[in-house]
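LOG
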Amino acid sequence: MKYRHFITSSNLLVVSGKNASQNESIVKKAYNGDRILHTEARGSPFCIVCAKKGKVDAQSIKEAAIFCASFSKAWKQGKKSVEVHVFRPEDTYKRKGMPTGTYGVKKTREKIKVRPALAIGFKGRWLQCSPPSALNRIYVELGQGKMEKEKAAERIAKILVKLKIKATKEKIMQLIPAGGFSIK
C-alpha cells in the first residue's frame, strides 16, 4: 500500500493517506517539527509536511494545503475555496473508541484558504501530481471539471506518451484524485 506523496518547491516531503488506516498510520508516525494538515470538513486526507532540520517553510505549507484540499472530497464536490487547518503532532489526540483515521485536535496553529489545483510534471527526476508551484516542469494542468477520472487518466497518459514520458493509464489513476477533471 503506497501513500500519496510529493516533494515541495523547497524540497520537503509531503505524505498523505489514501484511506483511514493510512491516515491513522501517518499521524502516529509524525515527528515533532512536522506539520499536519487536514481540511475543515470530513473526507480529507491527513497530510504531513516532513520537517527538515526542524524547519517547515510557509511555501511548503501552502503547497501541502493545496494538495490536501485537492485530494479531499472538495475536489469531487467542485468547491473553489477550501479551508485547511495546520497543526503540530503534539496538538493531536486519540481517545479510545475513536474510529480508525480519526484524530482530535487540541489546537489549530493556522487556517489557510486555498483553491484546489494540481498539475502533473517533474520534480527533479520524479513524475508527480502536485500543486503546480512544486514542479520544475509542468506537462498537464488539472482543474475540477466534468471529465470522469478514468477518461482523464487515459487522456493524460496519451499526452505524456506523446512527450516520450513513460506513463500508463493505471499509473495516472494512482496519481490523481477522485472526481471530475478539466485538462489544460
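LOG (cont.) second protein
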Amino acid sequence: MDMAGSDLVEVIGEFEAGGLGQGGDDHDKALFRAILTGVFEQQRRIDLDIHGTLAEGWKLERLDSTLRAILRAGTYELLCRRKVSAKTVIHEYLEIAHAFYDGSEPGFVNAALDSLARKLRARELGHDAASAQ
C-alpha cells in the first residue's frame, strides 16, 4: 500500500486473486485479510509502538517501505493476535525479513519485535512490566 499507493480493498483483492505471490488457500487469505485490515485500523498505535524501538533521532518514515510493512504486521500480531505466541510471531517475521533482505535488516526486525514483545507481552515472556521498559 505504501509503495503503490493502493488502498486496502485493492491490495486484499490482488492477494486473493493470486497477484501477490500465490494467493494461498482460504485460511491464508483470511489471515492476510485480518492482518492487513488490523494494521490499517491500528496503524497510529502500531507506528507509535515501533517508533519507541527506534534509535533516538530516527523516524519510521526513514525505514524502507518493505521493512516498515514487516514491522507493522509483526507489531499488529503482537498486539492483537494473542493466541499466537510472541516467539512464533518474532520467528515468522524474521523469516519474512530474510526473504527480502540479505543485510542487517533481519537482525533489526528481530531486535525491534523482541523489544516490542517484552513490552506488549511481558507476562507471556516472564518479564515484569517495569523491566520491559
